[in-house]
Specification:
mainly alpha
């Protein structure tokens, strides 16, 4: 789905669930960092992002995107 769109995936922490390996296969860049919590991870990723649009989502779906009614 993202093959035609320049993108990057930034991983917010050092999760042991294989997220970084999946991101490395799918993205032009994937970054991991030590675990410091969701807010610090998002800020870290936003500071590194090179594109003007930033989309965030929890890989573990802790914050289910289907519950957003904006």
């Amino acid at each position: 789905m993202l093959q035609q769109i320049p993108h990057e995936i930034i991983v917010d922490d050092d999760s042991p669930d294989g997220t970084i390996q999946a991101a490395n296969r799918l993205a032009d860049i994937a970054i991991t960092k030590k675990r410091e919590g969701q807010s610090k991870g998002l800020l870290y990723g936003m500071r590194l992002a090179k594109y003007p649009v930033i989309v965030t989502i929890d890989a573990d779906l802790e914050n289910d995107p289907h519950t957003y009614h904006g």
